[in-house]
Specification:
Layout (H helix, E strand, L loop, with lengths): L9 H34 L1 H8 L2 H28 L2 H36 L4 H16 L1 H16 L4 H24 L4 H26 L14 H35 L1 H17 L1 H19 L3 H33 L9 H15 L2 H16 L4 H25 L1 H36 L1
Helix pairs in contact: 1-2, 1-7, 1-10, 1-11, 2-5, 2-10, 3-4, 3-6, 3-9, 3-11, 4-5, 4-6, 4-9, 5-8, 6-8, 7-8, 9-10, 9-15, 10-13, 11-12, 11-14, 12-13, 12-14, 13-16, 14-15, 14-16, 15-16
Amino acid sequence: MEKDMTKGSPMRLIIGFAVPLLFGLLFQQFYSMVDAVIVGHYLGVDALASVGATGSVNFMIIGFCMGVCGGFAIPIAQEFGAGHEENMRKFVGNSVWLSCIFAAVMTVAVVMLCRPILQVMKTPENIMNMSYDYIVIIFLGIPVTYLYNMTASILRSLGDSKTPVIFLVMAAILNIFLDLLCIIAFHMGVAGAAVATVVSQAVAGICCLAYMHKKFTILKLEKSEWRWERSFAGKLCGMGIPMGLQYSVTAIGAVVLQSAVNGIGSNAVAAVTAADKLSMLMVCPFDAMGSTMATYGGQNVGAGDMERVDQGLKACTILGLVYSLIALVMVYVAGSKLLLLFIDGEETVILGNAYRFIRTNALFYFPLALINIIRFLIQGMGYSKLAVFAGAFEMVARAIAGFVLVPAFGFGAVCFANPLAWVFADVFLIPAFFHVRKKTARILAKS
């Protein structure tokens, strides 16, 4: 059920909210890893590279969907924290209408543009068709991406981080079964991995929707609360679109970088793909901290308590630092062995490059932690437009790496592209938080 984060120990609340999120993210990455393991071992290095070559454009589009849904949930969290239940339900109703519109328009547009995008990204010819088969099915599933992320975001905005995780775990298990069925039994190739992902996410979204309808009486909307209202839709777009653009703008830099990697060859693509799969697993706690701070910040700003916002930021930053050090040790001790999950041990060059990539990234995990903690807190406080600027700083850094550093220094520059982007973003975000904090405190004092 719903959880009020405006009372009690900030550290305890943050850990209690983040841990279920973390398990959900770990399972999400787990079945993503299983995808890579099955594709890499049963279909080969080229198939693994074909999936990896779509990673940045996948993040650009699917990340936009996730960001929009997260942004739509912020006014819901703020109204819940303020105790304005009728307005909260109106925001829920209008977010449903907007999600349907966004999903329909985006699906048609991106499916039509899939192949031209892959061509612009210099996707190697030997993996072009497999890359297209994979990504076009993922993009046909955009409506179910909105379904799961919107329902999960609403539940989290009310303090329930556990239920979306339960359904995500179910989806992860289903995804693994469907992977094996589609790839090994039905011989569908990389398209089978995409079908498994879309179907499993659809099941998770439907389950979240059914649970909300049955258990959350606070979300029982009257007919009038379903009505489209321009002011509510405008505020939702003002929160959601910038958060979506934050992902997409960041991903533009990733697309530039991916194009540079593609230009090095499919072996480099395979190395980065394998390293990214392992890295995404390692950084799940940072993503959980970010989502937690969005809800925590939204509820406490809604309640008008800036002191608790400061306490929450301090507590989460300590957690981020501690985990960054733990993750660094884990990567250096076991990273090379874990990469064998994705790449055959005989592919020594690919393995060496993948380990070099993840080891370099691990040195900069704490700047990444700060990005997630501060950016999502700022968004939860209602200043999601600033997130676009943070994404722009990341985009510029990756574009510099892709256009200048990779052509000059090769794979070594690829390894430093993410750390450079994280540092650039923090240079903007840390001063931005103090500006936002001062402005919010002034507004709350007046009201």
